[in-house]
Design goal:
6-stranded parallel beta sheet, Quinone Oxidoreductase, Chain A, domain 1, ADH_Zn_CS, metal-binding, about 375 residues, single chain, 2 domains, alpha/beta, 10 helices, binds zinc ion, 7-stranded mixed beta sheet, Rossmann fold
Amino acid sequence: MSTTAGLVIPCKAAIAWEAGKPLVIEQVEVAPPQAMEVRMKVKYTSLCHTDLYFWEAKGQSPLFPRIFGHEAAGVVESVGEGVSDVQVGDHVLPVFTGECGDCRHCKSEESNMCDLLRINTDRGVMLSDGKSRFSISGTPINHFLGTSTFSEYTVVHSGCLAKINPLAPLDKVCILSCGISTGLGATLNVAKPKKGSYSCCLWSWSCWAGCARIAGASRIIGVDLNPKRYEEAKKFGVTEFVNPKDHDRPVQEVIAEITNGGVDRSIECTGNINAMISAFECVHDGWGVAVLVGVPDKDAVFMTKPINVLNERTLKGTFFGNYKPRTDLPSVVDMYMNKTPLKTTWTPMTTSSSSSSFSVRVKVPVSLQGGME
Ligand SMILES: [Zn+2]
Ligand SMILES: [Zn+2]
C-alpha cells in the first residue's frame, strides 16, 4: 500500500484550456481511483500526432479544458476496488484503447476493438461514474483517450494498462504504448507481408521504416512533402523517397511506375484523406494491401473507383496495430528487450506561458532503429 493511496494527489499537469492555445503547466488535483481503475505515476510521456490533432480541434469535437497525452510509461501508485491484475509498484504502459477480456471483440482472435474500452475521443470522464478524476479549484478537467498522461499522476481504467517486464527501461518502452506498436502491428499483424523480399510504401512516417524492416521489407519508399526529413529517414531504413510536390501527376502513378505496377504493401499514417486514397491506389493489383492508420477528419469521405478493389487490391484499417493491449503488449516489450534497439531523445516539458517545468518529460523526436538481425 502506498502512503498516498485513497488520498487526493496534488501534482503538476499540462492543461489545454482552449483549442490551439499553449498548454499551461499548473497544479491539478488527482482523485483516487474508483472501481476497476488504477492511479499511476507517469514517469515518461511522449507527444504523438493525435494529441496535436485534438488540441487543434480542427475537424474533431472540441472538449476543453483537457489533459492530453496517451503515449507513456509509469508505475502503479494505487488501485481501485476490483482490480486484481496489477498491483502497487508494477511497471505499466497505458493504452488509448482497452481490453475488458469479456466482450465478443476481446474473445475474438481477430479484433482488438473492445466493446467496453475501445478508443473514444469524445469522452472526457471515467466510465464507472461519468466523472473526471482531475480538477483545479473544483473545476473538472477532461480526460483524453482515457489516459491523460501529460500529468505527473493519472487515473486509467485497469483494462487500458499493460503490465510489463519490470526490467524494461521506461524511458525507452514508453514509445511502445502508441506509435511504435501501432507501426509494428500495422506491418506485422495487418499488412501481413509474405515471407521474402517485398516493397513497402510509408506515408510521411519515417520512424516506421524500422517496423517495415523488421517485417522484412527490402524496398521502403517514404512519401513526404518535407524534403528535410529524407536524410533522417534514411538512417532508419527508408531506401527511396517520393515527394508529391516534385511531380505534376498523382503520386500513386509515380509509385506504380518506379515499382513496376505498384508496391506490395502500403501504410498510411497521416490521416490526410488524399494521402489515404493515394496509399490505396499505389498498391499492386492482384495482391497489394494498403493499411490506413492515420486519424482522418470526421467528415472525410474515401473515394476511389470500385475497379481498384475489383482488381484484387485490399484496403484495411487498424487501431493500435491490432494488438490487444493487455495480452500482446508485454510481448512487444520483451521483443525490444531481446533484440530491437529503440532510440529516444528527451527534453523537459515547458510551455511558452509557463516558466515552470514538469518532471514528466516529452520525447522529441522518437525513432526505431535497425531490424532484428
Ligand atoms: Zn498516438
Ligand atoms: Zn472487451
